[in-house]
Design brief:
Chain A: InterPro entries: Ald_Oxase/Xan_DH_a/b (IPR000674), Ald_Oxase/Xan_DH_a/b_sf (IPR036856), Ald_Oxase/xanthine_DH-like (IPR016208), AldOxase/xan_DH_MoCoBD1 (IPR008274), AldOxase/xan_DH_MoCoBD2 (IPR046867), AldOxase/xan_DH_Mopterin-bd_sf (IPR037165). The complex is a heterodimer of chains A (739) and B (175). Chain A has 18 helices and 30 strands. The chains are: A alpha+beta (739), B alpha+beta (175).
Chain lengths: 739, 175
């Protein structure tokens, strides 16, 4: 491939729209006679609604209706109709289905009024009486009831290999340890919102905050028994999601319900508090028994995870696959059990299972390295895995050693003194820690359409999303690169359910999946252009095949003689050109499954811990990434910077605290739920090591949305140990724990 | 408070909607005469009444900074400001920064430094940067980080935002 666009640090093509306020998000599309819905949330965690009295609210001029389980229309309610493309096994939540309350802050009514302020005020006048029931929200109290689900949402835990029990018993050095992290909430800056525009003949145009417009389309079509073509979902800009938009959230259902009943356009925006009323990263406890030889060879790994789910769906994520990916060990046994609580079902949150499993594994391995008496980096090199042991496959590529080398050099790791509490600066203890990690490099089926019009402009489209990841920009680059065009002549369209099929925008697979489809469809346009060029009188391309040419600088050129070529504008201008339109439906190559496919990272962290106050400052982070081909170093670096900031949040700040007296997450706003702010973030260096991979997908990119977070929290926790000599085994590492 | 039977309270409570007030605001150089209910925040006035949706709602509680606008040149959280309190004021929103199609230097710097990802906090970050420069308090890198900490960026673009602010401060000192 000629690299005239791919690999360039292009500015975002949607940058201007975002810095001028022109970019419109789901709650920002207007409609004539728009009405506003405000959600009433349950005050109890479990029980029944005895009565709802909306009479005061309805007295107000301008309040149109209060929808509850008592007056909601009789749509179809079979719970299969409420499953979406990211549903775990179980029975999905159905808003306003009946009087049962399954979790705290469950939506129990929607007040619709002429203005937002009126709807909000009227919602405060809705009087609800409940019959409360006992509830289970205490994870620790219920861990004894943990169970193996009938069906995992994630991969089932790998089968054991070797003789882990014997190997552990005979290991010269062993540790048993337990790690925990709390529930966390995604908290994208944009709150979940849906604007349903009621059109002629009842046709609905729905603007939804979601990571898959076709997922929302299918969900609404099934839940309301509508033909797919009557449900048009649009989402050109998404104000962050990090997984929260992988499932359609309840404001979408409620807005559609109200629009259909009132035959009016309706907007429903959740409050920041209500952003804590649906999916979240599940609280997880992980137990390890690890054995090694005196020279640091890993001999046994046992890893048992216990993770939160709801009472109505069995959510699980890949928490325990990481020992088999990240370390060579001949004797491994893992398990993953669920603890069902009266909460909303957890939901994939940036690197689900990876951020959590790798955090615990990498801290436990740091403990083992110390017990053996080895440098943590040496320990990892000693136990480097050359194969994906979970599935006994070679890796498609793995440049993790190069991540160690470049990362350690940039950080100055060789200047580290090994003993905890051995480095200081005034009253600050200095700690240096490291960790490594991996994330799946997956390709999914995806479709794309390309139209080259007579004015020489190319429009490529797919129903994917850009949640800040850079999809608009990178797809434009891939298309422009494939046909040798300037970026300005290419437009990429996304976020519209009528566009070609896309997988959900998540799992770090968008560049891999949609990018491969974009390349394939542009190749088809290229083949057509070549045929047209060959028909031109005296064409230098007359006798060549597609393999013999390249597209560069607006021309089709001979690969072995680039001075010979035909300008694409000449092909278009030769007369009779009516444009080229191509579609592809792209499937991953079956041969991929013979390989373990992962991006890798090595992260080195410096912390400064105030010896008297216990305050921890993450002063320096070096993140070295092996992520395959880097499509755009500028947006790629931003992805990794964001992942590091998320790792800082996970390690130091983020925790949704359950009040087990009320069964409610208590710190449900951005004042009490702490995410990193500007002052929490200091020096971050990002390194992309060279990694070539022809197997992972046709464009060789592994995806960067999640690899950036996975090793950060453990590297910070390990640095805090190095600084203080204290192992904090439950996140976040707040100052009371660090002291 | 004395206990009363629930139904009696309900009957006697008549919901009351306050009358609207007339105010004048100059928004992005254009004078608007507006009929506004007292419970309408400046943020909701901009977004829902005037369709100036560039100013974002991220929490409605002054905890995130997404709603930052410039009021008489000073950065404020428009969600914590009732519109009726600001009769006669000048408001500049993200829509008012570019002049004749040319971006404000801070807007251009946000693009060049990739100081955003999803873009939702960006209008607030940009207004906050301009407000910070106007304040003239930030002298050091730590000052910048502290004084920009009222604007949360969940995508984590802070390091790039800091570069923009540093440049903006240098530009203002050079003038």
């Amino acid at each position: 491939m000629i690299t005239n666009q791919i690999g360039k640090p292009a500015n975002r093509v949607d940058g201007r729209a975002k810095v001028t306020g022109e970019a419109k998000y789901a709650a920002e599309f207007s409609a004539p006679d728009l009405t506003y819905g405000f959600v009433v949330s349950s005050a109890i965690a479990k029980g029944r609604i005895k009565s709802i009295d909306a009479s005061q609210a309805l007295q107000l001029d301008g309040v149109l209706q209060v929808f509850t389980h008592e007056n909601r229309p009789g749509y179809i309610w079979g719970d299969k109709n409420y499953q979406d493309k990211d549903s775990p096994p179980g029975s999905p939540f159905r808003p306003l289905y009946d009087n049962e309350v399954q979790f705290s802050m469950q939506p129990i009514a929607l007040v619709v009024a002429d203005t937002f302020e009126l709807a909000r005020y009227a919602a405060s006048l809705v009087k609800v009486e409940y019959v409360t029931q006992e509830f289970d929200t205490d994870f620790e109290a219920n861990i004894g009831k943990a169970y193996v689900p009938e069906q995992y949402k994630s991969n089932p835990p790998p089968e054991p290999w070797g003789n882990p029990d014997e190997a552990l018993a005979s290991a010269a050095v062993k540790i048993e340890t337990e790690y925990a992290h709390p529930s966390e909430h995604h908290n994208p800056m944009e709150m979940h919102a849906s604007t349903v525009v009621w059109g002629d003949g009842g046709k609905m145009t729905i603007y939804d905050k979601v990571q898959g417009v076709q997922n929302s389309q299918q969900y609404i079509a099934k839940a309301f028994a509508l033909p797919m073509e009557e449900v048009h979902v649009i989402s050109p800009f998404v104000g962050g999601a990090f997984g929260s938009g992988l499932r359609p959230q309840y404001q979408l259902f409620l807005a559609v319900l109200a629009a259909r009943e009132l035959k009016r356009s309706v907007r429903v925006v959740l409050t920041r508090q209500q952003m804590f009323s649906f999916g979240h990263r599940p609280k997880t406890v992980q137990r390890f028994a690890l054995g090694a030889s005196t020279d640091g060879k890993l001999e046994a790994v046992m890893h048992d995870a216990f993770a939160e789910t709801s009472k109505f769906e069995d959510y699980s994520e890949n928490v325990v696959i990481w020992p088999g990916v990240l370390y060579h060990c001949d004797n491994v046994k893992v398990s993953h059990k669920l603890v069902a609580l009266d909460v909303y079902t957890p939901l994939d949150m940036r690197a689900p299972g990876g951020a959590t499993g790798i955090y615990a594994l990498e801290c436990a391995m740091d403990e083992l390295a110390y017990k053996v008496g080895m440098d943590p980096l040496e320990f990892r090199l000693k136990n480097y895995s050359e194969r994906d042991q979970n599935e006994d496959k070679p890796f498609s590529s793995k440049e993790l050693r190069e991540c160690y080398r470049q990362g350690a050099e940039k950080f100055g790791w060789n200047k580290r003194s090994k003993e905890p509490r051995s480095m200081r600066e005034g009253h600050n203890l200095i700690g240096w820690g490291m960790a490594h990690g991996a994330w799946e490099a997956t390709q999914k089926p995806a479709a794309a359409k390309a139209v080259l019009s007579a004015d020489g402009k190319l429009t490529v489209s797919c129903a994917t999303a850009d949640i800040g990841t850079g999809t608009y920009t990178v797809m434009t680059q891939i298309a422009a690169d494939t046909l040798g065009m300037p970026l300005e002549d290419v437009t990429f369209k996304l976020g519209d359910s009528s566009l070609p099929m896309s997988p959900l925008e998540g799992g770090s697979w968008t560049v891999s999946s949609v990018g491969s489809a974009v390349k394939a469809v542009c190749d088809k346009v290229g083949e057509k252009l070549l045929k047209l060029a060959q028909q031109m009188p005296g064409s230098p391309l007359a006798s060549v095949t597609f393999k013999d040419i390249i597209f560069a600088d607006g021309q089709i050129k001979l690969k072995n003689n680039p001075a010979q070529g035909v300008a694409v504008t000449d092909i278009i201008n030769q007369g009779g050109f009516e444009g080229i339109e191509e579609d592809v439906s792209n499937e991953p190559d079956k041969g991929q499954s013979n390989y373990g496919r992962y991006a890798h990272s090595a992260v080195f962290v410096e912390v400064k811990v105030d010896e008297d106050l216990g305050t921890v400052k993450v002063t320096r982070v070096v993140s070295a990434i092996a992520g395959g081909r880097i499509m755009n170093p500028k947006t790629a670096k931003s992805q990794i910077l964001g992942g590091v900031v998320w790792g800082i949040g996970m390690a130091m700040e983020e925790e949704t605290v359950m009040d087990n007296n009320l069964g409610r997450f208590m710190n449900h706003d951005l004042d009490k739920y702490h995410v990193p702010v500007n002052a929490d973030v200091h020096d971050i260096d990002v390194i992309f090591v060279e990694e070539n991979d022809d197997i992972v997908n046709p464009i060789g990119a592994k995806g960067l949305g999640e690899i950036g977070i996975v090793s950060v929290a453990p590297a910070i926790a390990n640095a805090v140990f190095h600084a203080t000599g204290k192992r904090v085994r439950d996140l976040p590492i707040t100052l009371d724990k660090a002291m | 408070m004395k206990d009363k039977p629930q139904n009696e309270t309900a009957e006697k409570h008549t919901p009351f909607l306050p009358p609207k007030n007339t105010i004048t605001l100059t928004i992005n150089g254009v004078e608007h005469r507006l009929e506004v209910a007292p419970w309408t925040s400046l943020l909701d006035l901009l977004r829902e009444h005037l369709d100036l949706t560039g100013t974002k709602k991220g929490c409605d509680h002054g905890q995130c900074g997404a709603c930052t606008v410039l009021l008489n040149g000073k950065r404020i959280n428009s969600c914590l400001t009732l519109a009726v309190m600001k009769d006669g004021s000048e408001v500049t929103t993200i829509e008012g920064l570019a002049k004749d199609g040319e971006l404000h230097p801070v807007q251009q710097a946000f693009i060049d430094h990739d100081a955003f990802q999803c873009g939702y906090c960006t209008p607030g970050q940009i207004c906050s940067t301009i407000g910070l420069v106007n304040e003239g308090k930030a002298k050091t890198l730590d000052d910048i980080r502290d004084l920009m900490s009222g604007n949360i960026c969940r995508c984590g673009a802070y390091n790039n935002i800091v570069k923009v602010v540093q440049e903006a401060l240098e530009r203002s000192q050079a003038q």
